[in-house]
Amino acid sequence: MSSKCLRKNKGKLLILLGLFCITLSGFTISGQLNFSHAEASSENTPSESVSPTATPMPPKPADTSLTAYSTKKGLILRWNKVKKNNSGYEIQYAVKKDFKSKKSVWVKNNEKVSKTIKNLKKNTKYYVRIRTYYQAEQEKIYGDFSKVVSMTTAGDVTFLHKEGFYCEKISNTTQKRIIGKSYTKNNYVQLSDLRYIRVQHYDYKGKIQSGELIVNKKIANNTVKVFYELFQKKYPIQRMKLIDDYGADDETSMEANNTSAFNFRNVSGSSHLSKHAYGLAIDINPKINPYVKGSTVLPKNSKSYTQRNVSKCKGKYKDNMIHKNDVAYKIFTKYGFSWGGNWNSLKDYQHFEAS
Ligand SMILES: [Zn+2]
To answer: Is the predicted pLDDT of residue 25 greater than 90, yes or no?
Structure first.
């Protein structure tokens, strides 16, 4: 029995086995079986697996994570840079969640942090994941795959301002989301009067997010331009999801500080249609820019932001409030919107509407 075989065992068992071998073969191995108590009881004896001839494994690069953004005929992907022990990135995408018939895109530069994949099917949900790799002499050593992200590519685009900033007709996918919620059949606004908008925006942590909005086609192109300019200025918008994700309930959406536009509803507390019902008004960061009429404050969780003086306001995000002549105000008014914070009878600090 070789000493190599014996080294796979430990402690008392090993000694017993050794004795058993001696009995069986009569072979003298006294020198090799000279275990001390300490050696025999150690769980972490390092000598076992290291062979002097083995080549050290190249280091495995750290993992990264991915964010996907929709654009016309494609996806824009961004990830976290991994420099150490990393040669580049492999991106895999597929229309099926299990990555059957996947395609790979190689980014052979560890400094790069974004890639646009083009010529994809329109209005199609894609699943995407990424992993780092280290190019060793013979083989690639991979990091683990990131979490899978999914994103739907643009549908019938009517206006593409910049990659990732566009509007499209209301697709079947969008119809399924809004009919019976923010959209109900009516004599004033048809689905063909509306446009679905995709933009990118910075959130309150400074991360770029994918935002969506539905507005009237009359203001759709300008709205895309407004949000592109806000993005260029890194204007913080906490979230931009269709109000339908909040059951088309204005209060719930506002309490989540969700930026939204179209919702077929009446003016709060009245029986006539709101500008939002036509998709002609946009509410920005509503929780920190409330609607204030006398003692009524909407949303209900925004009371601290009725104090508009930043030095006196106690709200956590007081620095992101909208003020007259600030960056948001200037961009919106440049494109013909007026601001509810300028009204006299009430103040609607979140509200920009087409004049
Ligand atoms: Zn509004």
So the answer is: no
